[in-house]
Amino acid sequence: MLPKFGGAALLDAPADPAAESVAWFEVTETREQRRLVAALGLRTVEGTLRIGWCTFAAGVEGWSYREGLLQSLADYPWMRKAEPTQARALLERVTSGGTGARR
């Protein structure tokens, strides 16, 4: 079963979106009512703003579009498993003693 998210609140967005930018939201996973921080990579294509990637993080980061893209690609190995697993941001929060530090 795929998770469902609701209650999105904008945490940070570029004042003037460039060709590539990142916006941050707090969302609530509806089944467990867990609050998560989501990042959206935004890219302007032919004058239209489009979402290029989405991932979760322990908090708002100072990522460029490319850094966020690399983080989102690092989360893909879980898709090859038969059983569901936590997102890397949640695992790193637990294993780093709650700091949520990303490398």
Could you characterize what this model shows?
This protein has 103 residues and is an alpha+beta fold. The protein has one domain (5-95). It has 2 helices and 4 strands. It has helices spanning 65-74, 88-95, and strands at residues 5-12, 20-29, 34-45, 48-57. It has a 4-stranded antiparallel beta sheet with strand order 1-2-3-4. Strand 2 (20-29) and strand 3 (34-45) form a beta hairpin. The chain is globular. 11% of the residues are buried.
Layout of helices and strands:
Elements: E1 5-12, E2 20-29, E3 34-45, E4 48-57, H1 65-74, H2 88-95
Antiparallel strand pairs: 1-2, 2-3, 3-4
Span of the ends, CA to CA: 30 Å
The count of strands amounts to 4
Q: List the total number of helices.
A: 2
Indicate how many domains the architecture comprises. Answer: 1
Q: What is the helix fraction of residues, given as a range?
A: 10-25%
What's the mean pLDDT score? 79
Helix-strand pattern, N to C?
A: EEEEHH
Largest sheet: 4 strands, antiparallel
- In terms of per-residue confidence, which ranges show pLDDT below 50 for 5 or more consecutive residues? 98-103
C-alpha Rg (nearest Å): 14 Å
β-strand percent reads 35-45%
Identify the strand order in the major beta sheet.
1-2-3-4
User: What shape does the CA trace take?
Assistant: globular
Class by helix and strand content?
Answer: alpha+beta
